[in-house]
Amino acid sequence: MNARKSLIDAPEKARVRRRDIRNAETEIGLKLRALYASVQEEEIPARFLDLLEKLDEAERNHAQTSE
Question: What are the strands, taking DSSP E only, across 2-64?
């Protein structure tokens, strides 16, 4: 009788596990989206902008010397 009862309970346990996994995945997705949005809103640090400007300048100088 116990073996039969555990077979009957098995689909219910599987449903609970799948539901828990879906809920966890949904929560992870929401938190990742919130993190991504907060990173998008951050300002670019001035030192990165300076580095990008120096790179642009170096590329322009290289292009002029190559011609």
Answer: none
Look-up: residue for tokens 């009862």? Answer: 5
| Helices (H), ranges, the chain | 2-41, 46-66
What is the gyration radius of the CA atoms in the chain, in angstroms?
Answer: 28
- The pLDDT of residue 54 is 97
pLDDT of residue 50: 97
pLDDT on residue 66: 81
pTM: 0.46
Task: State the Cα–Cα distance between residues 14 and 22, nearest whole angstrom.
Answer: 12
For the chain, the maximum distance between any two Cα atoms, rounded to a whole number of angstroms, is: 88
